[in-house]
Design goal:
155 residues, mainly alpha, 3 helices
């Protein structure tokens, strides 16, 4: 069963140019698109002819279009003003955050740095004064034990 599925998968993937396959391609979307484009062009052509033959209707439609353009420009200006206000607000908030970091975090980091230096000094002191002598003594004792074992080993 899995072999059949993989055969189907690779059979479809092996055809790099499906447009050249012997199976017919569904051309209905292309036909519907062409028909829709022709209908839209005919509608706009008839609307243009009607506006050309009726100048008062064209003037009213022109005035309505100009009003909508003005309203759109007004809306865009309002959105730009809102965008500027939001940008200024965000810049001020970022400035407050930077001041907070300088006021609160910088002293903590300097204290942390001094604490790390103290801990580093403490660990180096302990390794030199406590750990090194213990390791030296333990290695000497282990050496003496090895010598004693090798001398008094029963053959």
């Amino acid at each position: 069963m899995p072999q059949e599925i993989s055969d189907l998968y690779y059979a479809e993937a092996s055809n790099p140019r499906p447009e050249l396959s012997p199976e017919p391609i569904d051309k209905r979307p292309l036909i519907f698109g062409i028909i829709a484009a022709v209908v839209i062009i005919i509608i706009f052509g008839l609307l243009g002819w009607w506006l050309f033959t009726n100048p008062p209707a064209a003037a009213v439609l022109r005035d309505i279009f100009i009003i909508f353009l003005g309203l759109g420009a007004f809306l865009i200006i309002l959105l730009l003003i809102a965008l500027v206000v939001i940008t200024v607000y965000l810049v001020l908030k970022i400035n407050d955050l930077i001041r907070l970091l300088n006021r609160e975090i910088r002293p903590v980091l300097s204290q942390l740095q001094s604490t790390v230096q103290t801990a580093q000094g403490t660990t180096s002191f302990l390794s030199e004064q406590a750990v090194k002598p213990v390791i030296t003594t333990a290695s000497a004792v282990a050496g003496v034990q090895a010598i004693v074992r090798s001398l008094f080993r029963r053959s």
